[in-house]
Design brief:
Layout (H helix, E strand, L loop, with lengths): L1 H17 L11 E7 L3 E8 L4 E5 L5 E6 L7 E9 L10 E10 L4 E10 L4 E6 L1 E8 L7 E9 L6 E8 L8 H4 L14 E5 L7 E8 L4 E8 L4 E5 L6 E9 L2 E10 L2
Antiparallel strand pairs: 1-2, 2-3, 3-4, 5-6, 6-7, 7-8, 9-10, 10-11, 12-15, 13-14, 13-16, 16-17
Length: 262
Amino acid sequence: MKRITFLLLITLFANVLQAQITLEKTYNNSASTAWIDGEGYKYYEMDALNNQCLIYNLNHSLYATINLSVPSGQYLYDLKYITNHTFDTDDAIELCYTYYLYNEADEYYTYTTKIINQNGSTILTIDGASYVNIINVSEEESDLKFIAYVYDYSVTPYTIQTRIYDLTDNSTSSIAPINPIISSAYPVPANNEIHIPIALNNHNSGKINVFSIEGKKMGSYHISDDKKIYNLNTQSFLSGTYIYQTSADNKIINGSKFIVKH
């Protein structure tokens, strides 16, 4: 018995030595990475409670704190594109954030997206925009477009506009560090359909698995790399929060949440 116990301990110790993944830092809010020209990669954290963007060095020491102006009674929803040469040509940090107001009486959301400089000055405000993205539209690295999807949920059926802003004259930043592998599903909230951006990371095909917030599997849908968006019909889904995961070869690539509101 002692020999078996000893061998088990040796095996466990050997497995620990071979492990290549260790917990380095835990942030208490939603966090991701950003690229700042002249500085390199940074971590950033969205503090929705205090309406702040917290930027950290790679050793997790605080680099900068940027206050986000959110009107009273409204709530910070999203934060992205922390850069310094994408939306204008000065060296100050810029960022894009979205906040929302929920109309309890009529049960709909109103979103606003803003692009600001580090000092709080506004570069652009887009009323109604709940989802934004930056894409490269040519072989030139700096031929960038900023796309905003603008929704009006105060009318039935709700309306949508797609606004395309040219960044070519402003941006000197490469698209590679700031263009995410996958963006958020939209619209938020969804009614009859949710659009899920696809990124299969060099796989030819895969699946989108959808679960309720309680963990119940709602469905599995085949996807392929020749399409950039999967349009998921949500008419049969109850109002609530759902989780989707993109997978290929039985490995989860990425995932996020979406909200259905009928």
